[in-house]
Write a structure and sequence with these properties.
This protein has 231 residues and is an alpha+beta fold. It has helices at residues 8-30, 39-44, 69-84, 133-137, 163-169; strands at 54-58, 89-95, 106-107, 109-111, 124-129, 141-144, 158-162, 179-182, 187-195, 210-214, 224-229. Strands 3, 4, 5, 6, 7, 8, 9 and 10 form an 8-stranded mixed beta sheet that branches. Strands 1-11-2 form a 3-stranded antiparallel beta sheet. Helix 1 packs across helix 3.
């Protein structure tokens, strides 16, 4: 019988995963140091997430080999599948926005019944994440549900908002089921969950309006892999 040769895409995916696995091994040995400015400060300050038991890898991939959103999502899916199968891993996820990383992405927002931006003209921080990211970070779910694998292309577009933006946009109202229009991709999305406020810029920052959308309904796939180890 003849043998089946791997395609060029298979080879690229395998090589990229080898690079990611090497980075993951190094970061697991190093622990969660990239999240910690000082252990004392982080233990004393309410961050909105749990740094303990968290490891971070910054992915540096040959993105020319993963030019399409479909290729990037396939890589993220396989990376998370292999990561979650590792001994001692409780959960894992990928994100474009990591606390204290120094990066940020903003978008304008408007809501039903409003002609201006939904937060009084301010920009809203947005993160594109995979299911499992918020769980790996220990960000609490306050209402509704987290993002799921069923939130994909072809399914209704959804978003999560933090408690700060929920209170500002819909005071004394239930935010679940409300609609948001995002300027960065001209999309209308339904709020399916409210999560806790997370400090992304500094230990002293006040809550900021933030929203989360799934990588299967937005691109690109983020450069940060977050791993939660078992207690």
């Amino acid at each position: 019988r003849g043998t089946v040769s791997p395609t060029a895409g298979d080879v690229r995916l395998r090589d990229a995963l080898l690079v990611a696995q090497l980075a993951l091994t190094v970061v697991l040995l190093a622990g969660a140091g990239v999240l910690l400015r000082t252990v004392a400060d982080l233990r004393a300050a309410p961050l909105g997430f749990r740094a303990e038991g968290t490891a971070i890898a910054q992915l540096s991939l040959p993105w020319r080999a993963f030019e399409t959103a479909e290729q990037q999502r396939a890589f993220a899916d396989e990376l998370l599948r292999r990561t979650r199968a590792l001994p001692g891993v409780a959960d894992a996820g990928v994100t474009t926005l990591l606390p204290f990383s120094g990066n940020s992405y903003t978008t304008g927002v408007r809501t039903e019944g409003r002609d201006t931006d939904g937060v009084g003209g301010e920009s809203v921080d947005r993160a594109i994440i995979t299911p499992g990211y918020l769980e790996a970070m220990g960000v609490p779910l306050l209402r509704g549900r987290m993002l799921a694998d069923t939130d994909r292309a072809g399914a209704p577009l959804v978003a999560l908002v933090n408690a700060h933006i929920a209170a500002r946009l819909w005071p004394n109202e239930d935010p679940l089921g409300k609609r948001l229009w995002l300027s960065f991709d001209d999309s209308a999305r339904t709020v399916v969950g409210v999560v806790g406020n997370v400090k992304h810029g500094s230990l002293e920052e006040v809550p900021k309006p933030e929203l989360y959308i799934t990588y299967r309904q937005g691109s690109p796939v983020g450069p940060y892999l977050v791993i939660r180890t078992r207690d």
